[in-house]
Amino acid sequence: QGVLLEGLGTFCTVQEPLSLGAEEVLLVRRPIFKLGMQVVCAQGLPCPEVTLPDDMAIEPLNYLLLSLVTSWPRCVLEACVEETIRLFTFHVENKQNVAFDFADLGVLTHHGDTLCMSFYASCVTQLQKKRSLSAALGS
């Protein structure tokens, strides 16, 4: 399932084959981010071409669940996310370099004419562990 951050983009994971040798193939989970900022694309910046699988379920960020996990009121979380996206967009529109950190996921950067989402190695490693755990549980 993918998670949509309205005004910014969609985060999800995809499974891809990784060749380990002659006939060995391992399925790995890879995080991806599809930029959804029409403002940025309208600025003439090249947007990285990312394709989400057609059968991918995309859900908006679940502020209620996030509120329960963080103990912050839902309205505060919504306002914080909206304001942060506005701030990032402002920097991009004004051609300012900016790094937007997603805790435990990675960094979305704007530098010059380039937008790039780099995922932390720990995020990728954690995805593989969860997959292994799921496989061990038979799901």
UniProtKB/TrEMBL annotation:
GO cellular component terms attached to this protein's record: microtubule organizing center
InterPro entries linked to this entry: CCD81, CCDC81_HU_dom_2
Domain of life the protein comes from: Eukaryota
One protein family per Pfam: HU-CCDC81_euk_2
Annotated signal peptide: none
Residue intervals of the CCDC81 HU domain: 58-130
Protein name: CCD81 protein
Gene name per UniProt: Ccdc81_3
